[in-house]
Amino acid sequence: MVALADVFDALTSKRTYKDAWPRDRVLSLFREERGQHFDPKLTDIFLDRFEEMYAIKHKYADEEQA
């Protein structure tokens, strides 16, 4: 769970050294890494709630991140 949350935050956040990834690219990475880097059952749950988490993240994002 922590790996999913950490990667989600890292990829969807703008940093001084990189832009945030587009939503479709983030989804693709999680689908590709399901069963490899991420537990398949947890990844399925994560992907089922992806849009909800993405919306929450952007609702509470810093102005620089939005």
How many individual helices? Answer: 4
Query: Which value, in Å, is the CA radius of gyration?
Result: 12 Å
**Helical content, roughly?**
55-70%
Structural class: mainly alpha
Describe this protein with a few key phrases.
66 residues; 62% helix; mainly alpha; 4 helices
Strand and helix map with partners:
Elements (H helix, E strand, L loop, with lengths): L1 H11 L10 H11 L6 H9 L1 H10 L7
Task: Tell me what the structure shows.
- This protein is mainly α.
- It has one domain.
- Helix content is 62%, strand content 0%.
- It contains four helices and no strands.
- It is globular, with a radius of gyration of 12 Å.
- It starts with a helix and ends in a 7-residue tail after the last helix.
Concise structural overview:
With 66 residues, the protein is mostly helical. The protein contains 4 helices and no strands.
